[in-house]
Amino acid sequence: MAGHGTDEHPHGADRLCEAGDRVYSRAVRRGRVPRRDAEAVPCLLELALLHPDPDDMDWLVPTSPQEVMTRLLRGVYDEISASQRRMGSAVAAFEWYAGLGGPATASASRGEGTAAIRVLDGPARIQAALDEATAACTTEVLTVQPGGIRREHELSEGLHRALALRGRGVRMRDLYNHVARHGQGLLNYLELMGDAVEARTLDEVIDRLILFDRTVAFIPANADRTMALELRHPGLVAYLVTVFERLWRLAIPLTAALPDTGIEGISHREQSIAALLAEGHQDAVIAERLGISVRTCRAHIARLSETLGAASRTQLGVRIAQVGLDGPPRDAGLTVPGRESPGVR
Questions:
Q1: pLDDT tens digit string along 160-174?
Q2: 247 with 276, same domain?
């Protein structure tokens, strides 16, 4: 074992060294490998990618790729959560330190007497800040509302603000996931608001964003949305406005139908799921990005498999590529394996 210490294998399970990749791949294909094969790659044992066979200690068996992926994703999630907490703490510290510097420091970090970045901790403080921004708004509100179908109680929470804005002639533009089109609550809300609100949808949208008069923005500061950031820095707000406008140009008006996939038996949502499957995403990730439940996502995947004649996930990936669902939609008239559209002979 001399000469093969951990210093020669400074990597994680997400990017194996060449020797480790060869041994682990062989173990997955064969079900196990002799312990001596792993002597040159102690990283596989240290990363728990291989472990002793309880029936024969001279052999090593691999940890399943699915378990490895779950472990890696959990680590990434923990890192993101920690980063979000650090971001909230850093912004709070900035706000506090800025207040210590007196008028000179405050003028450098504040605009017209208001903090450029303010941390809002707790639903009550967030609500109060939104009410204040609503009262001051005179021209326009831009929002991104992720999360799929909007429930009646979610829409009613902000209804008083929306009605106040409409009464002052403020125009509103809202972006939703495509799936929000199926919610009666949203349709009722838009009917109530009339031409004061224009709504469009996309397969995927960014996290929640609210912009008032292109001067103040609100974004979440943690995953459960119990903290938010109020942004008044002109550079930050202008950047978020640009992001919104580019998404808006790509979005489809709620009054317009979603484009046909051009592939018999495949819906627009199934096409979106297929593209994300082709990128290698797991069911839960796909569901979150499209604003649907994991159960609904899996039901669509099952229909995709049936339509494309795939007996396994691996075969489904091949079929998705064959019919062009792994990229931009092709021209209408395409057929899927075992099926022929009426216009193709």
A1: 778 889 889 999 999
A2: no
Burial 239-267 (b: 16+ CB within 10 A, else e): ebbeebeebbeebbebeeeeeebbbbebb
Per-residue pLDDT at 301 exceeds 50: yes
Q: Which alpha helices (H) appear in 137-224, and where do they start and end?
A: 152-157, 159-167, 184-193
Q: Which two tokens stand for residue 59?
A: 């052999």
- Residue 74 pLDDT: 67
> What letter represents residue 161's amino acid?
R
The answer to whether 284 and 298 are in contact (CB under 8 A) is: no
Domain that holds residue 335: 259-345
- Reading across the β-sheet that carries 50-53, which strands appear in turn? 33-34, 56-62, 50-53
Nearby residues of 104 by Cβ (< 8 Å), 6 or more positions away = none
The CA-based dihedral angle spanning residues 292, 296, 297, 302, taken in that order and rounded to the nearest 10 degrees: -160
Residues 127 and 249 in one domain: yes
- Number of domains composing the chain: 3
